[in-house]
């Protein structure tokens, strides 16, 4: 149904420098994305603009230059390092006489190549369908209406309307199947909470070394490669930590600047492993010059998926690529670990990471005694859902006196969710 290009083709890359910080993209990152997609970049064209051109995104002169480069190199596809509107894509295709792809389409193509599990494939297909639904007209410009006549009278729809109806049906079917997957994941999380097994989720910019670190800690053999989006499907493994015991470690998909919203929505089931974690291991490639920027991008995505309140331990990875940097733990004023400097590749500093994880997870549990009046019985129901009640008794006034033990992140969430805040129910000692 869709005319997607095949990997192994020749591409002309287009990058526009904008003065606006929010519109800026990284040209080196585009080249890495293109290499990850298995495409050969035959030419790179750059230009500067204050704002995108309404018709071609670039100016009409630059559009002609792109078309000339396509002919000169016999390229099959033009890839923009920006998000294009459907009309801009069509106008550029008309002038270049080849397929035009924007940054979102390129990332979706990489995801389609990397999806291995049934869930991953469903999530990628959902993101692709949502993205492509606005671009359907490309395939059917030669068909005005379905043919009429005896035996060929259709429902009176244009071919485009038929396609959109089929698309909506397919999207609904995928959402239903993903809902089942989400329920299964939720069940697993609930049983882990009942068993009081904490979850640590690896997050970070794509290609920061998360899967290599995951393999180093868990002695697993998860696919790890020096390319963008090597990991797509989440993997969970159990590890043992001193003073904490059994802990679940989750390897998740890497983030990237301006992560397409279609992807964030489609990967809701996967990203929930991050939302429900007790601790986030934020893996940073400190050998990169722009690592502070990429940290900001990851934090922006975490805020978007409501995971910014969760305690973070920053892993400064790839110190083996730097001179004079040794494995160490950085601590805050309260002596809590905030950064671990290490190398996932060589294993230098892994013991320090285990130590920091044990300290962070040991501190992350809170114990309180609450007095809950009958008028706030809903709070008691929420506490039972979280499986955090150690004991409860009635007092003479009919209030519940409840002893709770829960991760501090859950306590902070309840503090924000409740009108009065959960701390208002704490019994004063």
Automatic annotation (TrEMBL):
PROSITE patterns: G_HFLX. Residues 164-191 form a coiled coil. Gene3D superfamilies: 6.10.250.2860, GTPase HflX, N-terminal domain, P-loop containing nucleotide triphosphate hydrolases. InterPro entries: EFG_III/V, G_HFLX_dom, GTP-bd, GTP-bd_M, GTPase_HflX, GTPase_HflX_N, GTPase_HflX_N_sf, HflX_C. Residues 198-365 form the Hflx-type G domain. It is found in: Cytoplasm. The keyword GTP-binding applies. Transmembrane segments: none annotated. Its main location: cytoplasm. GO terms for molecular function: hydrolase activity. The keyword Coiled coil applies. Keywords: Coiled coil, Cytoplasm, GTP-binding, Hydrolase, Magnesium, Metal-binding, Nucleotide-binding. GTPase that associates with the 50S ribosomal subunit and may have a role during protein synthesis or ribosome biogenesis. Belongs to the TRAFAC class OBG-HflX-like GTPase superfamily. HflX GTPase family. Monomer. Associates with the 50S ribosomal subunit. This is GTPase HflX.
